[in-house]
Write a structure and sequence with these properties.
Elements (H helix, E strand, L loop, with lengths): L25 H30 L9 H36 L7 H21 L6 H4 L19 H29 L12 H32 L13 H12 L1 H22 L6 H15 L14 H13 L1 H15 L8 H24 L1 H7 L3 H31 L5 H19 L2 H6 L14 H31 L50 H14 L1
């Protein structure tokens, strides 16, 4: 290795134009994913405000009931297919190559195509709301036999557009999964064995493997539903010999593991950030890494717990109740590992750390209600009520989105080259944490006392908790304002970041901020130890002192 030419010299900034075109640089694609995802996040959030505005009073007096049904469906699909999955793909693009020492993704052009499908199916999904026969007719997720009550044979209708968008989302995600898995398995730096790989890469590998196994079922099921609607086939039509329950199997075979596709990378974020801000090695590194794949295995055999009320056999209920409960074991391994990492550490309550702690708190609560939902009697009792909505939102927003915010604040200096503002960041956390709990916690007593979801009017006895939930939702909407102000102002005029502002350990922190286009280029350092060596005094790579000295000289010269 030639130390004289390492690390690579910073390259001149190429301007904003590269973010609006077909670019194969994974870092540019990562930022394209994240910015696009937050554009749709704002739309989905505004729809949530309409939903909670309608539910602040018992009467259906804000929007038409059919419009409300469509908004309900659009909110969910936008937040999942146009926010959560794209923003996680953006983080994967930013972090995987830099963490493992790869110059780019394994298939850069496929990577770019996967991203550009997002605005295409995003436009199609949004347009379906304004076309007759759109999401308002579909209920939630276009469940048969609701969906098959519509006229057949219309190639262009809102429902067909909506289902086509979901199918294209699946194609995009499969492309991304192929890329991420190949990159992690084939493009690691010299010396980086699997058990020297950061936990984020372990969780990304597990999540994307789950995508490759489960996502074809949802994509194929959506295509079969589209054929039933447009060509008159009978995959799900009882009058033609089809089975509506088959659609539920296709849907839930992927859509419950999809929760792990979302939460596993967030587990990786927690595992990366807790050691940094507690100045301790990750407790139980090997077990945390392996637990990710145990979650994958169990995650593939739990989907029927969503179908307990649908008439499945009792033996199937019992079996899937047990497998659903078992998944708490590897998840608990991770939680106790994080607590072990925090215990006795020198905690720094920066904005990323606050979001991680808040996300961990919310996830533990969501795990408790998840165990409740795993039991057959409780699940049947609260099925299709707001208890399920509350549990789901604690996982997705309370834990996953807070973890995503933590990652953005933590790695923003590395990939943008400027520091976000701590004051705005902590205000953002405070509003988010309070708003999320005020919004989602009241949904649990509402569900336990019988309030169904997907309704725009309700009995007056549910008014109090709905008012609290709506006020929490509005506070959650306000919380995004300091985040946007922080990101925009920091990107334009924030303080310049050094190569390692958090004093973290990892290959990405041995690159300039922002990194060159090809990351390390041909001079990839050799990894000689496991990650998270805080306090051990052992370098991560060969010649680490020389690498950091040269980076410091480059920063001083700039």
């Amino acid at each position: 290795m030639t130390i004289a030419t390492f690390p690579p010299e910073p390259t001149p900034e190429q301007g904003w134009g590269r973010y609006f075109g077909f670019c194969t640089d994974a870092k540019v694609i990562g930022i394209q994913y994240i910015v696009t995802a937050f554009f749709f996040f704002l739309i989905g959030g505004l729809l949530a405000m309409v939903i909670r505005g309608e539910l602040i009073t018992p009467a259906s007096d804000l929007v038409d009931r059919a419009v409300y049904n469509g908004i309900y469906t659009m909110h969910g699909t936008i937040m999942l297919f146009l926010f959560i999955f794209p923003v996680l793909n953006g983080l994967n693009n930013l972090l995987i190559p830099t963490m493992i020492g790869a110059p780019d993704m394994a298939f850069p052009r496929l990577n770019a195509v996967a991203f550009w499908l997002v605005p295409i199916f995003g436009f199609l999904l949004m347009a379906s709301f304004f076309v007759p026969g759109g999401p308002a007719y579909s209920g939630w997720w276009s469940y048969p036999p609701v969906s098959i009550q519509n006229p057949v044979g219309h190639l262009i209708n809102g429902q067909g557009m909506w289902i086509t968008a979901v199918a294209l989302s699946g194609v995009s995600s499969i492309m991304g999964a192929i890329n991420f898995v190949t990159t992690i398995l084939r493009m690691r730096a010299p010396g980086m064995t699997l058990f020297r790989m950061p936990v984020f890469c372990w969780t990304a590998l597990a999540a994307q493997s789950l995508q490759l196994i489960g996502l074809p079922a949802l994509t194929g099921g959506a295509i079969m539903l589209l054929m039933d609607l447009t060509f008159g086939t009978s995959f799900y039509r009882p009058e033609g010999g089809g089975d509506p329950v088959l659609y539920q199997h296709f849907f839930w075979f992927y859509s419950h593991p999809a929760v792990y596709v979302i939460i596993l990378p967030v587990f990786g974020i927690f595992s990366e950030l807790f050691p940094v801000y507690s100045r301790k090695p990750l407790f139980g590194y090997v077990y945390v890494a392996l637990a990710s794949f145990i979650i994958v295995g169990l995650g593939l055999i739990v989907w029927v717990h969503h179908m307990f009320p649908s008439g499945v056999a009792q033996w199937m209920r019992n079996l899937f109740m047990v497998t659903t409960m078992l998944i708490a074991v590897p998840t608990g391994v991770k939680v106790f590992a994080w607590l072990g990492t925090l215990w006795g550490g020198k905690l720094r309550l920066t904005t990323p750390m606050l979001f991680c702690l808040g996300g961990l708190f919310n996830f533990v609560f969501a795990g408790i209600t998840g165990i409740m939902l795993a039991t057959v009697p409780v699940d049947i009792h609260v099925s299709n009520t707001y208890f399920v909505v509350g549990h789901f939102h604690y996982v997705i927003y309370g834990a996953a989105v807070m973890g995503i915010f933590a990652a953005i604040y933590h790695w923003f200096p590395k990939f943008i080259g400027r520091m976000p503002y701590e004051g705005l960041g902590k205000l953002h956390f405070l509003l988010t944490f309070i708003g999320a709990n005020l919004n989602f916690l009241p949904m649990h007593p509402l569900g336990l006392t019988g309030m169904p979801r997907r309704v725009s009017s309700y009995d007056p006895e549910f008014t109090f908790w709905n008012v609290v939930a709506s006020l929490g939702a509005f506070l959650l909407g306000v919380s995004i304002i300091p985040f946007l102000l922080n990101m925009l102002s920091a990107w334009i005029r924030g303080p310049k970041a050094t190569h390692n502002p958090w004093n973290a350990i990892g290959l990405e922190w041995l690159l300039p901020s922002p990194p060159p286009e090809d990351n390390f280029g041909e001079e990839v350092p050799t990894v000689i130890s496991r990650p998270y060596g805080y306090g051990s005094g052992q370098p991560l790579v060969e010649h680490q002192d020389e690498i950091e000295r040269r980076l410091a000289l480059q920063e001083a010269a700039a």
